[in-house]
Amino acid sequence: MTVRKITRDTNFLSRKAAAATSNDLVVADDLRDTLMANKSLAAGLAANMIKQNKRIIAFYLGQLPVVMLNPKIVAKQGEYQAREGCLSLLGERNTQRYHEITVMYQDMRLKTHTQRFTEFTAEVIQHEIDHCDGILI
Prior knowledge:
- Belongs to the polypeptide deformylase family.
- The chain is an alpha+beta fold.
- The chain has a single domain (about 10-130), classed as Peptide deformylase (Peptide Deformylase, Alpha-Beta Complex), CATH 3.90.45.10.
- About 25% of the residues lie in helices and about 40% in strands.
- It has a five-stranded antiparallel beta sheet with strand order 1-2-3-4-5.
- A hairpin with a 2-residue loop joins strand 2 (about 55-60) and strand 3.
- It is globular.
């Protein structure tokens, strides 16, 4: 288990992440391990938060940590205003989110999936995908 330090470097966090490949599975493992070590503080993490500029996110689906490589929102509906915090930033900020999203992504075996998510899980995924796109709340 490798737990990495969470970065607060906004210049690094503002960069758009590169696509993840099979060479980045160790980054995905480290991201999952870091999420689990920060379970009381974070519902999700993106790879750039551990100083890895790759398009990888990890979040909890119930008690289960889930890792997505190259996630992309392909559908969304039900826009609303959310107030969010982030381990990489101080305080909370307002942002636009959607109640329901459909995400296309690869799992740890690089198999492609398309899955629908709602409510809090959808909000967490949107936050982490924003990180992949260099968007800070």
